[in-house]
Amino acid sequence: VLFSSSGAEANEAAIRMARRFTGRPKIMSRNRSYHGGTTSTLAMTGDPRRWFVDNMALGFVKIMDPYPLSFQWDAADQELASKRCLECLHDQILAENPESIAAIFLESICGANGWLKPTT
Fold first, then answer.
1. pTM (2 decimals)?
2. Do 26 and 59 touch, CB atoms closer than 8 A?
3. In terms of Cα–Cα distance, which of 66, 47, 61, 48 is closest to 98?
4. What is the DSSP string of 61-109?
5. Is the CB of residue 63 less than 8 Å from the CB of residue 96?
6. 70: pLDDT confidence band, cut at 50, 70 and 90?
7. Is 118 exposed, middle or buried (0-12, 13-18, 19+ CB in 10 A)?
8. How far apart are CA 55 and CA 72, in angstroms?
9. First-residue to last-residue Cα distance in the chain
10. What backbone phi and psi angles, to 5 degrees, belong to 14?
């Protein structure tokens, strides 16, 4: 059991545990996300706040958001949109090499960059 005093601290510990126990370097996270203000959690964050640490923390990969305004297909059908989002994530995992990915961090609803509700 880990008792942390902040979300950033909890995320830092999760990153270290994922890398330590899998032996894999890459951490995937959503493009529009916020995970904390420390070096690793900022690198995992998907907005301009991370730019000054991008060269300092290696192994962080951004996943495109499953957000209808960024779709290149008709998002009227929620089931089809969800399926296509999962297919895109699957393709990106394959492109990154599944054997190199330690963890995928996802916020169910991103609040730091506006209230973005993904397809369900």
1. 0.81
2. yes
3. 61
4. EEEPP--GGG-SS--SSHHHHHHHHHHHHHHHHHHH-GGGEEEEE--SS
5. no
6. low
7. middle
8. 31
9. 31
10. -65, -40
